[in-house]
Specification:
2 domains; binds zinc ion; about 425 residues; Aminopeptidase; Alpha-Beta Plaits
Length: about 425
């Protein structure tokens, strides 16, 4: 164990340098730039580290085009047997830098123990830490009883369809070849994320009847009716959602139940140039409803349908339509007593001397695809960085956190797939 932790420490400067190189490639999504260069850089490194590496363009996928091609990487290092198999997965895409940076987002620097750059926390430092934790086992001369695998995938920030979902559908990331998955998303060195909430996105359209704006009694205002509906949802649906507190340890606490957020609202005439005096005949809102495992999608939908029906009955002439917006996500979670979770807990205790905190994500990440398409039941997110830093200006990841996480991941790999008897 000591030799392994020493190997991680010796590799730390190289790991930091590699993280900087990855950040310097602007893999901005949307639209998905620089994927090939970044995937090749990772593939090269994994080849040097004795992995069997495949660089896979997503030919034929609807999101793959000559202008913005999608490339994923899958790598395996087999030991005595292919199983058990521990798989690390990280996404290579980053969100656009946005405004407010005081540094170049794509020229990574270390200042005061923090590595700055777009994608540092979310999640190129985590990916580098996973790659170097796997390498530490080799450098320390630890034989494998199972296999170590790693994938670097695209498009997580926009749903992961050409990334993890695509590879899982192709049979490359499934329970047929994988036992445990660790996704180094930025939850910090002592937190294990066991899953995430679900997401139901929907649009409500309110239909009215236009008339001259000076005589509104001759028309039906779609906006007025929508206002009544929004208030009905606020008064009746939201308390019902808030009362359903989940056993899943979602952090922050405010997200431990379902939540409802209005993404957008549009109604009447477009707000540019002059308006004509008309009663608005159309208004639409888009809502995002986050849901917990204790709820079902049917319940989630029927709450909204109930509110629509109540308003339609109480306001003659009102007419609403409910449309699914697509990209529905089901909640995913790994059991707290799963071997992957208890092994990570043990490794955190051995490395940091503290008890791990189990959390679940209020949002969603690639866990959903491993669970629902890949049929993998043991999947967690564990990695360096700060969740609050993700998608922010001047994003950073702590250097110490990166080394600590790499140690924990190396130790976890040793416990799960290393041949400790020989070693
Ligand atoms: Zn991420």
């Amino acid at each position: 164990m000591r030799a392994l932790l020493n190997a991680v420490d010796e590799l730390a400067p190289e790991m930091l340098q590699f993280a900087k190189e990855l950040i310097d490639i602007p893999t901005v999504n949307p639209p998905g730039e620089g994927y090939r260069e970044c995937a090749e850089r990772i593939a090269d490194r994994l080849c040097k580290f004795d992995f069997d590496v495949r660089l896979l363009p997503t030919e034929g996928h609807r999101d793959h085009s000559p202008a913005s091609p999608r490339y994923n990487v899958i790598a395996t290092r087999n030991g005595a047997n292919p199983r058990p198999a521990l798989h690390f997965n990280g996404h290579i895409d980053v969100v656009p830098p946005g405004a407010g940076w005081t540094r170049d987002p794509f020229s990574a620097v270390i200042e005061n123990g923090r590595l700055y750059g777009r994608g540092s926390s979310d999640m190129k430092c985590g990916l580098a830490a996973a790659i170097y934790s796997a390498e530490a086992l080799r450098r320390a001369g630890i034989p494998l009883r199972g296999s170590l695998q790693l994938s670097a995938t695209v498009d997580e920030e926009t749903g992961g369809f050409a990334g993890v979902a695509h590879l899982a559908e192709a049979g490359l990331l499934t329970s047929r070849t994988i036992d445990y998955v660790i996704i180094p998303e930025p939850f910090g060195p002592s937190r294990i994320c066991i899953g995430h909430r679900g997401l139901y996105w929907f649009r409500i359209v309110s239909h009215g009847k236009t008339a001259h704006g000076s005589m509104p009694h001759l028309g039906i205002s779609a906006i007025e009716n929508m206002a009544v509906l929004l208030e009905e949802i606020r008064q009746t649906v939201m308390p019902e959602i808030a009362a359903r507190v989940s056993v899943m340890p979602v952090a922050p606490l405010e997200s431990r139940c379902g939540t409802l957020n209005i993404n957008s609202i549009q109604g009447g005439e477009p707000d540019f140039g002059l308006q004509s005096p008309c009663v608005a005949d159309r208004c639409e809102v888009v809502y995002e409803r986050r849901w917990v495992p204790e709820e079902s999608l049917e319940e989630v939908r029927s709450q909204i349908i109930g509110a629509l029906d109540r308003v339609a009955r109480s306001k003659p002439g009102s007419k609403f339509e409910l449309e699914d917006y697509g990209n529905t996500v089901y909640p995913a979670s790994t059991r707290r007593d799963a071997e992957l979770v208890s092994t990570l807990e043990q490794s955190i205790y051995e490395t940091l001397g503290r008890r791990a905190e189990l959390v679940a994500s209020p949002g969603t990440y690639d866990h959903k695809h491993f669970a629902r398409i890949g049929n993998i039941v043991q999947c967690v997110a564990y990695g360096p960085g700060e969740l609050e830093q993700a998608h922010q200006a001047d994003e950073w990841c702590g250097v110490e956190a990166m080394v600590q996480s790499a140690r924990v991941m190396a130790l976890t790999a040793l416990h799960l797939v290393g041949n400790i008897d020989i070693y």
